[in-house]
Amino acid sequence: MVATIVHQLTRNLTEKQIREGGFSAYFVNHGNGVYPCNADGSAFSAQALQVSGDPITDIHEDLAAEQKARSTYDNILRMTDDPDVLNAIRFLREREVVHYQRFGEGLRIVTDSLDDRNFYAFNPAFDKMPAKKATPKQTAPTQAASPQPSGKAAGTAQSPSTPAKSTAPLMTAVQSGKPSQSSTARNLIPFCSIAAK
Predict the structure, then answer these.
(1) Cα(7)–Cα(84) distance, integer angstroms
(2) How far apart, in whole angstroms, are the C-alpha atoms of residue 77 and residue 60?
């Protein structure tokens, strides 16, 4: 959209307007074509894009990029009084604000699904989350419940309880006491692959 604005503003320039508007250096190299560069003429390069492979790091990079774009649009709004340019730049600025908010929500999804004491200590997209150890309180009921069914019917006490309680420590270790953690982990899939097993 910015390239389209530049094209619409420069496509019908006269030689006098090119000289007086400080556009001559650009015109010598590129004519009226749209060349991706910043205000001082530095060409766009993929070196400006950063990828670390760590979701927390990369989302912070995205958040910073959205704020840099917003501040650039703020400066453009201060430098022009063209109503067509103002309307388009205001729209782009609003979009950067929304993108910043969405990335912030994504960052919260990532960090809420990790142990808040150590989520800066490892890469959640690469390292395995350590399994939590079962406490004695979780293992005690599975062993104490088996000796009781002596005076009652043998079929009701033994078969249903033993298989279910054998997986109880594993389930409590995965759920870790937060009712919404399993749904949060499902929402995390688009951002990074965390092995919470």
Answers:
(1) 13
(2) 26
b/e sequence 24-42, b meaning 16+ C-beta within 10 Å: eebbeeeeeeeeeeeeeee
Largest CA distance in the chain: 106
Chain Cα centroid distance, residue 53: 12
Please give the helix or strand (H or E) that residue 156 lies within, else none.
helix 154-157
Q: How many residues does the chain have?
A: 197
pLDDT digits (tens, 9 = 90+) for 104-160: 999 998 888 776 666 667 777 777 766 666 565 655 555 544 455 444 444 444 444
pTM: 0.57
CB under 8 A, 24+ apart: contacts of 189-195: 191/55, 191/59, 191/106, 191/109, 191/110, 192/55, 192/110, 192/124, 192/125, 193/125, 194/113, 194/114, 194/124, 194/125, 194/129, 195/128, 195/129
At residue 113, φ and ψ (nearest 5 deg) are: -90, 0
Q: Which residues contact 44 (CB under 8 A, 6 or more apart)?
A: 36, 37, 38
CA distance 165 to 44: 60
